[in-house]
Write a structure and sequence with these properties.
The protein is an alpha/beta fold and 257 residues long. The protein is built from 6 helices and 13 strands. Residues 1-194 form the Calcineurin-like phosphoesterase domain.
């Protein structure tokens, strides 16, 4: 099974630039690249921050550009999103009974669970009791391999600002996952605007670049997350019973591969 991991589009409403870059143009380039080289992917998982400020125009643009991809899109939201504006623009995206942008869907390699860590007016991520109870049910009603997707990582990565705005409820998430840890095959995160991989309490994870700007690998600066202008990118994930392989496609300026 092959799928695409997209994250952190940061579209703006007016079509203006963000950090001197055009988020719509860069997303269009990524979508064209996916269409050209990975049209055989089974689905796309998008781990949040579709917009930079929850702008309705940003969601309209996201919907139009993402619709160019031929495969199904599974999406949750991040701290830069607005849950209400997202749901207005993407009314077909499943939500939990409490209105969180959470979904569990079955794939040939196991159940994929998307969690909504957005908390209004907060940069850090939250998983409240309602969201965790939904996760517990999604896990309890499946017995095979599980994949997780969420915006905020529950772990520190060594970047001061990003560590402070990680998922606040990591310990609670771990508590829900603990009876199932042996079958949680991989966790896909956004938020960091960097390609990285590792493991958290034995759960392998990977994160991908954003499609607009990146966050510098700066272990010194503490008060802000310095923007960097590394190329946009997205993940190409290959899953078999034996392995999960998370590639990064990056799109250098001026060439498509
Ligand atoms: Fe982001």
């Amino acid at each position: 099974m092959k799928f695409i991991h997209l994250s952190d589009l940061h579209l703006v409403g007016s079509g203006a630039t963000l950090h001197g870059l055009d988020p719509r143009d860069r997303l269009r380039r990524c979508v064209a690249h996916i269409r050209r080289f990975h049209a055989d992917a089974a689905f796309v998982v998008l781990t949040g921050d579709l917009t930079h400020g929850g702008e309705p125009g940003g969601y309209a643009a996201a919907r139009a550009i993402l619709a160019e991809m031929p495969m199904p899109l599974h999406v949750t939201i991040g701290n830069h999103d607005s849950r209400a504006a997202f749901r207005a623009a993407f009314p077909h995206v499943p939500v939990s009974e409490c209105g969180f942008v959470q979904d569990a869907f079955d794939t040939p390699e196991g159940r994929f669970i998307l969690l909504d860590t957005h908390e209004p007016q907060q940069a850090e991520g939250r998983l409240c009791a309602q969201r965790l109870a939904w996760l517990e049910r999604a896990l309890r009603t499946s017995s095979g391999p599980v994949f997780l997707g969420l915006h905020h990582p529950p772990f520190r990565v060594g970047l001061g600002r990003m560590d402070r705005i990680r998922l606040r409820d990591g310990e609670s998430l771990l508590g829900v996952l603990r009876p199932h840890l042996g079958r949680v095959r991989h966790m896909f995160v956004g938020h960091l605007h960097r390609a990285l991989a590792g493991s958290w309490h034995g759960v392998p994870f990977s994160g991908v670049r954003g499609t607009n700007h990146q966050i510098a690998l700066d272990f010194v600066t503490q008060d802000v997350a310095p923007v960097s202008f590394e190329a946009p990118g997205y993940g190409v994930v290959l899953v078999s019973p034996e392995a999960v392989v998370a590639h990064l496609e990056e799109l250098p300026d001026g060439e498509s591969r």
